[in-house]
Amino acid sequence: MPKVIEGGFGKKKQEDRITVRDMLFKLREALGDFEEKNPEVAVEAACVIFIEDREFVLASNGLHPDTVNMLLDLGKYNLLTGAMGHAEEDYEGPVH
User: Mind listing the pLDDT tens digit for each residue in 7-37?
Assistant: First the structure.
């Protein structure tokens, strides 16, 4: 089961949304010094940033495209199945 660090899933107001900068900071805080204390454990991440009407950015420390694809699929699967607290069909916020 995924651990939700910060999620505004289901919130309807734009002003309730956490900023990307704050979200990335919370992820860094959650990770702490785990990587330094556990160098034998692989810690991999993929991050997608979409800026409306401007650009789409994908960053990952995965060493192979399949790794990045798997990380994105895991995230998508957990969102669609409601494992993050809200299923897609329950979402009443803005549609992209």
Answer: 565 566 666 778 889 888 988 998 999 999 9
Query: What are the two backbone dihedrals, phi and then psi, of residue 88, each rounded to the nearest 5 degrees?
Result: -55, -40
DSSP code string of 42-90: ----EEEEEETTTEEEEEE--SSHHHHHHHHHHHHHHHHTTTTS--GGG
Q: How many Å apart are CA 80 and CA 82, to the nearest integer? A: 6
How far does CA 93 lie from the centroid of its chain?
Answer: 18
pLDDT in tens, 55-87: 999 999 988 899 999 999 988 887 777 665 555
C-alpha–C-alpha distance, residues 3 and 8, integer Å: 14
In the three-class reduction of DSSP (H, G, I as helix; E, B as strand; rest coil), residue 3 is classed as coil
Separation CA 59–CA 80 (nearest Å): 22
